[in-house]
């Protein structure tokens, strides 16, 4: 076993928890430096294959992309209308989650989750919806949830978790959909009365993919009395039978952007340009040519220049700096008035992080005309991290796509 890797993880988590409980002084220092805010480094996120499967489980508070979410509150996960695409009605797919605790006692653990509908058609419709100011019923294909817990909570020990496979969180979670492994399995297969689904859509997909046969076998091998108590834990750890429909799973690792500001050697340039060649160069040049206005061209060029320092970044984390998101295009940017207030405390929302389209390259999403694509997704969250009674609070995402004029 790779003990070095475990040591790294422990250090990472300890550092995170120390930030919360001990280093108040450091926070004060940061405040003192406000005048130099422009130079405060922002944090970049990169994806990596997980060193081991268990380190992405919820008891280790992972930042991760693809696969299934690690639900911080594993019981009260979003259900009813909130887990589906408001446009096509299908369950949303897990994009990524970021562990971002604050110094507040009520946010000792704090996780932000981003889900989206994999349909580009829906994302183009979503584009129109986000411009409608504070609609009563937003109709979105991208949704963000915030979940936070106090240090003392029913699900996790107050101490730093031990990094080994046998460490289990207290309490088990909700039974999840057998197909997506993401959402609550509220619907029971009426034939075997064993298998659970989040939606009719996933039940139908599972049926076609083989549950039709498995269902009759389940009925024979386990009579109704065998509906097992351990089911919840068992299902919680499995990845969902339809997991090949999910995006591939990665760990998100972080680094300060300042690490990349020094000149790169030729060697680095070569290896880093991999992404540019495959995903960016060809398409990006044609995108660039398609821009009508000089403003877009200028903003695109400076965005690329900034990203090129670390072309493999998939995430830019801003919350603890006064930095603003880098918009790839000048058109389709929100003004302050376009960002709603927190729907729970009415307070302002602040820019928390930005998701770059490089993530789609790692997810292996095709580069076809109708493939899912975006220029930028910027996530805004309640500045106060308010503690409304709802376990998973809706936050806000602004999506910028490359050519909004060609929508639909
Ligand atoms: Zn949809
Ligand atoms: Zn499902
Ligand atoms: Zn069945
Ligand atoms: Zn709030």
Give the N-to-C terminal Cα separation.
51 Å
Bound molecules: zinc ion
Overall morphology: globular
Number of domains: 2
How does the major sheet shape up? 10 strands, antiparallel, barrel
Tell me the number of helical segments per DSSP (H or I, 4 or more residues long).
Answer: 8
Q: Topology as H/E string? A: HHEEEEHEEEHHEHHEEHEE
- What fraction of the residues are assigned to beta strands by DSSP? 15-25%
- Order of strands across the main sheet: 1-8-2-3-4-5-12-11-10-9
**Rg (CA only):** 22 Å
Helix percentage range: 25-40%
Q: Which class do the helix and strand fractions yield?
A: alpha+beta
Mean pLDDT: 81
Low-confidence stretches: 1-7, 17-37, 224-237, 265-279
Could you give the count of β-strands?
12
Could you walk me through the main structural features you see in this protein, from its secondary elements to its overall organization?
There is one protein chain. The chain has 408 residues and is an alpha+beta fold. The protein folds into two domains: 328 residues, no CATH class; 53 residues, no CATH class. Helix content is 28%, strand content 16%. The strands form two sheets. The chain has a ten-stranded antiparallel barrel. Strands 6-7 form a two-stranded antiparallel ribbon. It is globular and about 70 Å long. The chain starts with a helix and ends in an 8-residue tail after the last strand. The N terminus is likely disordered. The structure holds zinc ion (ZN) (4 copies). The site of one zinc ion has 8 residues, from loops. This is MYND-type domain-containing protein. Keywords: Metal-binding, Zinc, Zinc-finger. GO terms for molecular function: zinc ion binding.
